[in-house]
Amino acid sequence: MSLAERLKLKARELGAELAGIAAASPLHESSAYHAWLEAGMQGTMDYMARNVESRDDITAWYPEAKSVLICGFSYADHTGSEGRPESGRLARYSVLPDYHDELKGRLKALLEWLKTESPRADGRVFVDTSPLLERLYARYAGVGWVAKNTMLISPKLGSYFFLAGLALNIELPADEPVADHCGSCTRCLSACPTDAFPRERVLDASRCIAYFTIEHKGPIPEGFREGVGDWVLGCDVCQEVCPFNRFARNGRVFSRVMETSQPLEALAALDEPEFKRRFGGTPVSRPKRRGIIRNALLAMGNSRDPRHRATLERFARDPDPVLREQAAWSLARLPVPTQE
Ligand code: B12
Ligand code: SF4
Ligand code: SF4
User: Fold this and answer.
1) pLDDT tens per residue, the chain (340 residues)?
2) Centre of ligand 2 from the C-alpha of residue 145, in Å
3) Which residues pair with 202 in a beta bridge?
4) Which of 63, 169, 286, 305 would suit a FRET pair with 83, their CA atoms being 20 to 30 Å apart?
């Protein structure tokens, strides 16, 4: 068996459902990324405009790179994420322990294994945060196709998987890219609650619920609040409607540590130590307690449930202007109380 085949096999042994190899060449689709930045679709995610030169050329990040191994790790969980009364929803990826450290550890172990198999081999691990267009390298590695909802979809596994990889200083044979299977389907484009796809394969992140609830620090712009619905962290709508997610399989690396449905009153009542205890070490901690409370107050308004009145009234007097304003907006959406 060739070194490339053994490497992919080892990746599977270490928990990856998918593994493929691409050449470490500059990407052909870089103009799409530059157009995206110029249109301001990154919103307040300023880091997306940094290290521009390496996102579409991995050799600017790791000059010795000759090939790129990309792995896909499933986080599917068939218990789903249906909304419940008085509750908000968390995206599927967020109810697990944070994937960055876990996958970094596995990819490091893979690199160590490779070094023993091929002593001149070396490389760098990347998981999400490195300035690389991971989905496009994954496309060239034959892991899946870049779909109309911009997700990388595997015909065998759907899209509920994380990407992680190795930039390698050795040349390995590249896999064949996977054909585009979206066909005439447009379900994801029409299902998006905030109309975040100006066209297929382009996501205006500054309109996406995942961006608002995770990355955006200030008040969520009024025009989008209704669309955010009951999402408290992230959003899975454009994946839930995708027919390829019927092929999703439960992953071997991650198991959920909490429910996707979380009572809104309990979220709003969290103090800092309790927030850390419940959500520390999971993606839910990313927007911090303040972000989660802002999102929970918004979901309360969208629920129009009068049982949230007392909490919203309390936050309408909060010293934090973002929480105060959000609570006032949500209060105005509750039914007017009837006089006894
Ligand atoms: C910034 C970011 C976000 C932003 C912006 C998302 C976006 N679509 O750009 C926000 C916060 C909104 C976000 C949301 C989510 N994210 Co995110 N995110 C990232 C991050 C860090 C960078 C993405 C990026 O570079 N965006 C810039 C745009 C321009 O790039 P792009 O979407 O890849 O777009 C390219 C294609 O559209 C392509 N293209 C355009 N037209 C055409 C035409 C053809 C024919 C082809 C082939 C290509 C093509 O060119 C573009 C640029 O080169 C990556 C990790 C990484 N380092 O890559 C994770 C990543 C993309 N996110 C991930 C996940 C899981 C999510 C969420 C599902 C989380 C959630 N449940 O809330 C959502 C999904 C939203 C969605 N539909 O994409 C995973 C996706 C795994 C997968 N199977 O695809 C990644 C890869 C993280 C990881 N390592 O696992 N995310
Ligand atoms: S994650 Fe949600 S808000 Fe973002 S593009 Fe997909 S459906 Fe739209
Ligand atoms: S819902 Fe349809 S168009 Fe959207 S990504 Fe899935 S197959 Fe492609």
Assistant:
1) 999 999 999 999 999 999 999 999 998 877 899 999 999 999 999 999 999 999 989 999 999 999 999 999 999 986 666 677 789 999 999 999 999 999 999 999 999 999 999 999 999 999 999 999 999 999 999 999 999 999 999 999 999 999 999 999 999 999 999 999 999 999 999 999 999 999 999 999 999 999 999 999 999 999 999 999 999 999 999 999 999 999 999 999 999 999 999 999 999 999 999 999 999 999 999 999 999 999 999 999 999 999 999 999 999 999 999 999 999 999 999 998 776 5
2) 18
3) 199
4) 286
pTM of the model as a whole? 0.97
Catalytic residue positions, numbered: 128
Residue nearest atom 2 in ligand 3 by C-alpha distance: 185
Q: Which residues contact 74 (CB under 8 A, 6 or more apart)?
A: 17, 157, 160, 161, 248, 249, 250, 251, 252, 253, 254
Ligand 2 close to Cβ of residue 196 (< 6 A): yes
